[in-house]
Design goal:
Strand 2, helix 4 and strand 3 form a beta-alpha-beta unit. By secondary structure, this protein is an alpha+beta fold. The chain contains 15 helices and 15 strands. The strands form four sheets. The chain has an eight-stranded mixed sheet, with helices on both faces. It has a three-stranded mixed sheet with strand order 1-3-2.
């Protein structure tokens, strides 16, 4: 392995600033690593190294915030001149002329796009496979799922094919792959990271966010992603203190809640025990950890109506044209959205407001809450989704992600960090969340616990293919 591949993004930034290494050298190291590793995991199906090299030669990047660090882009986000399929056969030959506004923002900060990472069709479903590129495999055991929908980004990070990557998250799509691959994925507060407004400029629950191998690198990447963009009417100004500084402080607040299930879902016993053992280590920083959680009554109705509404808005007009192409989960979600009544939408909005009020009051007693990120360890890659845990049968293909999307519906920041391994050596992630706009608090505490656990030091790895 090239020595550069094992460095953190933050260490690379310092070398680039001191001109001890060039962006071209980093791109060469990545290309060699992808040539070696990607055939086993299928995480980076679309490469654009020529474009990245051209960008690197046009500008002196060393003085910019990212200083020329290459970053991988989830294939739900457009990059000008680069094949962008959204994981769908309907767009398998799509080459956009304009980049997503977030890509423009990161490139202006000195980042270099060199690849697109695999994703399920339109990001639907927490397992990364599609009819264009096939399955993305978990590097800890290539027989298993990398989760989704940012599975390609998570695998690229875990295996040294990326130092930084973009992800997006509606039902846990940043956090679930991070958990399954032992990397870090952060869903920011609603509006912190600007996005192309799309069809629902004033009612968008999905968020783009940073992924990396450690919390400080995620915070560094978030600093260039966050901020107001006039094209996104819901985007926010960033805080005065940088997220990187907050993460480096490793400050742990005194009152932390832990819940193995948030009262909304069954959870694998081994996963719950690993997470509880990890969160108990906050006591080393003087924090008191209690078993408690907010009242998430009506979560399923609120999330499923909001999700269906968004699918109807974005894909409803194309359903008749592409019904035979879209996977069945997409068709189901769009049809559910098109069939919603005004009363159902009204009731879900009212219940969402009440749910948020209960969530907010919970933090009168606590600073943070921690849970398992995912309710099971990685499962066979050919299995489309988790349909049951124990005696509980889930009602649809996304319900098994309830413990993640509970924080989506309240617009909260939530991070997944590696916290341990099962008896079969499969990664488990711990989710940490707070009130909206308290992203820095989440990052600081997550960085402290990450340092205590030390699991991030195991990356990057070569894919493992047990017989």
């Amino acid at each position: 392995m090239n020595e550069l591949i094992g460095l953190t993004a933050r260490a690379l930034r310092e070398r680039l600033r001191r001109r001890e290494v060039s962006p071209i050298e980093l791109l060469d190291a990545l290309q060699a690593r992808i040539d070696e590793i990607n055939p086993a995991v299928n995480a980076t199906p679309t490469l654009c190294f020529d474009r990245a090299c051209d960008q690197a030669k046009k500008t002196d990047l060393a003085s910019l915030p990212l200083a020329g660090i290459p970053f991988a882009v989830k294939d739900l986000m457009t990059v000008a001149g680069v094949r962008t399929t959204f994981g769908s056969k309907a767009f398998e030959n799509n080459i956009p002329e304009q980049s997503d506004l977030l890509i423009e923002r990161i490139e202006a900060a000195g980042g270099l796009v060199y690849c697109k990472t695999n994703t399920p069709e339109f990001g639907a479903g927490a397992n990364t496979f599609n009819e264009v590129f096939g399955y993305t495999r978990n590097p800890w055991d290539t027989r298993l799922s990398a989760a989704g929908s940012s599975g390609g980004s998570a695998v690229a990070l875990a295996t040294g094919m990326a130092w930084l990557a973009t992800g997006s998250d509606l039902g846990g799509s940043l956090r679930n792959p991070a958990s399954f691959c032992s990397v870090v994925g952060f869903r920011p507060s609603q509006g912190l990271v600007p996005a192309d407004p799309g069809e629902l400029a004033f009612n968008r629950s999905s968020m783009d966010g940073p992924m990396a191998r450690n919390v400080v690198d995620v915070a560094m990447f978030l600093d260039v992603m966050a901020g107001h963009d006039p094209r996104d009417p819901m985007s926010l100004d960033p805080p005065r203190e940088s997220f990187e500084s907050a993460a480096l402080s490793r400050h742990v607040p005194p009152r932390i809640a832990f819940s193995k299930d948030l009262g909304v879902t069954p959870v694998d016993d081994e996963v719950a025990a690993i997470c509880q053992a990890a969160v108990s280590r906050f006591s080393e920083f003087g924090a008191v950890v209690d078993d408690d959680h907010p009242d998430f009554s009506d979560l399923q109705e609120v999330f499923q109506v909001d999700r269906a509404f968004s699918y109807a808005a974005s894909l409803g007009s194309s359903l008749d044209t592409y019904r035979d192409i879209y996977k069945p989960e997409i068709v189901w979600n769009v049809e559910k959205g098109l069939a919603l009544t005004s009363g159902e939408v009204r009731d879900a909005m009212i219940k969402r407001s009440a749910l948020y009020a209960r969530y907010q009051h919970f933090f009168d007693r606590y600073d943070l809450i921690a849970t398992p990120t995912t309710i099971v360890p990685p499962y066979p890659v050919e299995q489309r989704f988790i349909d049951r845990v124990g005696d509980h049968v889930f009602s649809n293909y996304i319900e098994w992600c309830s413990i993640a999307y509970a924080f989506t519906v309240v617009g909260a920041p939530a991070i997944s960090i590696p916290c341990g391994f099962t008896k079969n050596d499969l990664p488990v992630g711990l989710q940490i969340a707070a009130l909206p706009r308290q992203d820095a608090k989440v990052l600081a505490a997550a960085a402290a616990l990450e340092s205590a656990l030390g699991i991030h030091k195991q990356l990057p790895i070569n894919p493992k293919s047990p017989s």
